[in-house]
Amino acid sequence: MTGQEPPGPRDVAVVAFAQSDHRRTTDELSEVEMLMPVLHEVLRATGLRTADIGFTCSGSSDYLAGRAFSFTMALDGVGAWPPISESHVEMDGAWALYEAWTKLLTGDADTALVYSYGKSSPGPLRDVLTRQLDPYCLAPLWPDSVALAALQAQALVDAGETDEPALAAIAARSRRDATANPHAQLKGPFPHGDYVVRPLRTGDCPPIGDGAAAVILAAGDRARELCERPAWIRGIDHRIEAHALGVRDLTDSPSTRLAAEKAGAFERPVDTAELHAPFTSQEVVLRKALRLGDGVRVNPSGGPLAAHPVMAAGLIRIGEAAARVHRGESDRALAHATSGPCLQQNLVAVLEGDPR
Fold first, then answer.
1. DSSP states of 13-33 as a string?
2. What is the greatest pairwise CA distance in the chain?
3. Of 10, 88, 140, 170, which is least surrounded by CB within 10 A?
4. Is the pTM of this model over 0.85?
């Protein structure tokens, strides 16, 4: 024993973020062709080359691609030769970022490239997402993603926590904010539309589309070398609800609340929150779980109601929050990602910029 204090945990930051223009269909592009410009952009922002990256991690879903191990093809866009340190999660890219963050904390790497992508246009997305459900009791009934979200929305209405005009206002605000986002799929005034599944109308639901995103993480002084104002990850945590929907209170999200607590979100107020709420009713649940007051700017990018590339939308929430820190528009931001039906799995990250 030397009597010296053990070194503290490393500071890790998001130093660059890039995303594609999200579109309803990209039939003319493969996943690799959709991803490559995003990878080039995020590397160009830092001046790094692929060979300079210490660790690479990706998030995607074979169910969307319709073939096994589809993520290996995306490595053609990264450049996997000479051999690189690489990993993959069958999840939204936010969970790939979590893995990369832990890798940098260990000191095994100083930089990491995280990317994710999804093409939802080729198949019936509402049916594809039923494969997330319990395979014995629920999935064989084929309840689609919008029908399950409608159950959650109706539970909120019945509990007196929201109503249809309030949900319509969330949709209108989100797409109005998206007018300043050049990558958004839906922008500006849109009619709220007809019912899809009561009480959800077209405007309460996310657009179906294709897209990709990437971020670069860096640790310590390396982050300051690569970015004028890094977005430091002060805390990050993810939790999961019970798989069976029947045992959950759909008007609340205790896993989000616990993840936020463990990430330190309640220690000091945040000024910005990028919430992965694909349906307007889910923003109501998340605002309550995260204790967000009226002074917090929620989804200034337009959020997933403006663009929702499955498997990339959560990573985009972290990237959008980090970008606002980079630009000096936020000092302390919260980013949230979800996966599964009715906010089943939830990840919360807290990002901060250096004092100005």
1. EEEEEEEPPPBS--TT--HHH
2. 70
3. 140
4. yes
